[in-house]
Amino acid sequence: MSTYQSFTSLARAMLLGFRRDKGALFFTVLFPLMFLVIFGGVFGHQATAKVTVVAAGPVPLVDRAVAHDGDLAGTLKVVRAASRDAALKKVEKGDADAFVEQSGNALNVRYSVADQVKSGTARGLLSSIAQSANLAATGRPPAYTVTEAQVEDRSLKAIQFFTPSLLGWALASAGVFGASQTLVTWRTKGILRRLRLSPAPVPTVFAARVAVSLGIALVQFAVFVAVAHLPFFGLKLTGDWWLAIPTLMAGVLAFLGIGTLIGSWAKTQETAQLVGQLVVLPMAFLGGSFFPLDSMPGWMRAVSYVFPLRYLNQGMLDVMGRGLGPGSVLVPIAVLLGVALVTALLAVRVFRWDAA
Amino acid sequence: MAYTISASGLRKRYGDVAAVDGVSFDVEAGEFFGILGPNGAGKTTVLEIVEGLRRADGGEVSVLGLPPWPRNPRLLPRIGVQLQSSAFFERLTAREQLQTFGSLYGVPAARADAMLEMVGLTDKAGVQVEKLSGGQAQRLSIACALVHDPELVFLDEPTAALDPQARRNLWDVLAGISTEGRTIVLTTHHMDEAESLCDRVAIMDAGRILQLGAPAALVRGLDAPARVSVASGTLPVEDARALPAADEVADDGVSLVVSTRDPGAVVAALAAKDALAGVRIGGATLEDVFLELTGREYRA
Ligand SMILES: Nc1ncnc2c1ncn2[C@@H]1O[C@H](COP(=O)(O)OP(=O)(O)OP(=O)(O)O)[C@@H](O)[C@H]1O
Ligand SMILES: [Mg+2]
Hints:
The complex is a heterodimer. Chain A is an alpha/beta fold. Chain A has 14 helices and four strands. Chain A has a four-stranded mixed beta sheet, sandwiched between helices. In chain A, a hairpin with a 2-residue loop joins strand 3 (98-103) and strand 4. Chain B is built from ten helices and 13 strands. Chain B has helices at 43-51, 94-104, 111-118, 134-146, 164-178, 191-197, 215-222, 237-241, 263-272, 286-294, and strands spanning 5-14, 17-27, 32-36, 58-63, 79-82, 152-156, 183-188, 200-205, 208-213, 226-231, 246-251, 255-260, 280-282. In chain B, a hairpin with a 2-residue loop joins strand 8 (200-205) and strand 9. Chain A binds chain B through residues 1-2, 5-6, 8-10, 12-13, 16-17, 20-21, 185, 189-191, 193-201, 353-354, and chain B through 51-53, 71, 73, 76-77, 79, 81, 83, 85-92, 96, 99-101, 103-106, 128, 144. The structure holds adenosine-5'-triphosphate (ATP) and magnesium ion. Chain A: This is ABC transporter permease. Chain A: InterPro entries: ABC-2_transporter, ABC2_TM, ABC2_TM_bact-type.
């Protein structure tokens, strides 16, 4: 009973202290959110119309295909130019990926090799349009068909990537700094000694910190998802997105463990702050919070495996961004819980009640 | 008879410094016990050992019949501690501090307001601790030590950094809590504080207790002269020397001071000469006791 009472009142004290700390509120909630708004806004509308072809005259074959095939309309965009010359100029300047004209039954395509991937895609799409038209002209059902399904969306929409990844960074900062600053401040200000003189069992102090951090993490999650869900950003959560919650809880435990370790060791707030930054920033960059792991060079990707944040980002990205199932978060959760356990055990060994 | 605190032969070293060097004392139930000494005397270290915050390198201590080290959860609810530097939760108001500390001891939240009233902070209940003045923070810190109504209270320099007025106010508070049958152990730099509050005082310097006893007994035991002073020039120095019972006479240009063992006779003689302008009589104080014991001025 008294243990529970100690727990709730310590948790309340920490929460009130946090809520009244404008700096902490800013850095744990608003600051990462600003990154989401900026990154989501800047990169947000990139992945839509993927290939642009420009036409000067009528291209009924292409128009018909785009009009009837929703998927095609999503990848191929047809724009018009005033003249053939103007259209070719657009391709040269890179405003369009290919030029197309139809004379009779022939599609005439001109492209630039400036962006080989895009011009290649344009050529492929246009020739498949011609072939489907040929097939339709025979009046027979196709002898061979290809059914396709996406394995993993490599060209994830920016918001689908940035929401879980920047959230991971926000959670890591809140966990590491929350735990280390509380511990160092409470020690240097003598609150730890004062608690030691009270009959409250020691674990309640830590349990209270964990509970408060989990609460703060859920708020961060809710705020991030709410903002990313705005039509302007257009986050889409599908399938088992809720699995992000147990994943982020495991992440909070891991980062609290790291923060507790730093806070147990560091003598001053400045040291704790500095070491916290040295841990969180590289981890955020190399753990895939600011740019996707897939786009990193191989050695960087190899290095990323040492950062706990990598697992949190990966797990949340899989279930929130890519709509993958429960299997994708098992390993991340296990790794994060392992980190939490190891750091907690280490922290117990270096923990000090007293400043001196 | 079982003492509330019984300490014998306590020792604590920090590297080369013998912070506590063989300290023994007993405190009886209901006593107001003072530890008096200059900076670095070892007062805080003694308290920390008795409270159970530090382990002594040597010696025995028992508190309410229990050993304070290692951390003893059966003892902790019975003692209240005010640490030398106030320890408050950040950004909590005065009332929230008391509620939080109280709940660690299973005290209902409603008691917070009674405590605020006791230390005269009712109008500061909703103010965050960072915005309290030094004296207000000190009083809140004492209230936090008392919130669970402990039998034994430790106060480490509760009046440090207070102005004289605030110090007097706090003395009233401390005298009040002591009348409720509590045992109080207090450390201080101030001789006058020890004299007016404590039943018994231990005078400490350099890790040792130099003398222990009731303040009045210590002063009396000193057999030090009283001082009668009048405004300088009221009387020629020669005439003053001729006064009955005058031992020593000095005139510093501001006052003429006559040391004597019979201040009554000196004052009567001065009155007969109509030379009482600005008269003051000072008895020996604990400061004289300290000077006598250590051979140096007391520097608080
Ligand atoms: N944690 C510590 N580490 C090293 N030395 C210490 C420590 N605490 C105290 N000391 C030393 O022990 C001696 C006694 O210190 P203590 O704090 O007990 O004195 P004090 O009488 O309470 O002084 P003050 O009136 O200044 O509070 C001092 O010389 C101090 O420098
Ligand atoms: Mg001290």
